[in-house]
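May I ask you to review the protein record following this short note?
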Amino acid sequence: MTNAQAALLHELEPIVEQNLNRHLKAAKPWHPHDYVPWSQGRDFAFLGGEDWKPEDSPLDPVAKAALIVNLLTEDNLPSYHREIATRFGRDGAWGSWVGQWTAEEGRHSIVMRDYLVVTRGVDPVELEHLRMQHTIAGYDSGDKTPLQALAYVSFQELATRLSHRNTGKASGCPLADQMLARIALDENLHMIFYRNLMEASLDIDPDTAMQAIRDEVLGFHMPGMNMPGFADKAKVIAKAGIYDLRIHHDDVLHPVLRYWRVLERDDFGPDGEKAREEVVNFLAFLDAQAKIYEEKKAARAAKEAETVSV
């Protein structure tokens, strides 16, 4: 970490403390075991019961794909902890936040796995195999600066919140919907924390902050993209409208950028102005790509409807 980056983190420390206190007042305690229908559970063959069969699952293929992606993403918490502890440090208010965030995030994989195993929603053997692969591979964001990390998680936490919430709605299971809505509340509070810190960074160092935002808008990837079979599952998820380009453009990038007043600020120098222009151009490109995808999706739907009616 450079001296300038360390100085910025130090300058942000009082704002971190303010937002940590705000977060602790807003966050409501909850218990993963409350969201799991334990009465539906039964032993597997190892304890004299029956191992999982495809017909055991009450979930359709879309819900399975989305829940597996969401759970495996949450499983990489050790890597995410390393990422933010390395960028923000383990001392003072920053360190308190790193610990609080990690403890809260840990509940997400606990409750999702318990739900899926108890309800036999997915093959638990395959799920464990995928977890081992994904966690061993870990997650590495590269050499992001602290500001790039703040910009990234501001978008990523909101994207994850929407993914969980939309997965719950698409699951067809009221229990899963309730569980994922609760997880989404955590993700929203986490997004607000990071978003507020990035807003303060824009006031402290507008140009450097805007360049960091530009880097993460243009280079954004979900943290689970390196999991086994992610590309195929992402296509299923996008086709179902759980998370696609339109949602990313309209419901993730635009709300956060609007909150930061990126298009309205008048305190950028040449470097900040250039970064802002690149963001504007990319948003236009992304919107055009989303429209193309929507047109293709509508054409497929019309063709399928025509086939059914024949």
The mean pLDDT is 95. The radius of gyration is 21 Å. Residues 299 and 305 are 10 Å apart (CA to CA).
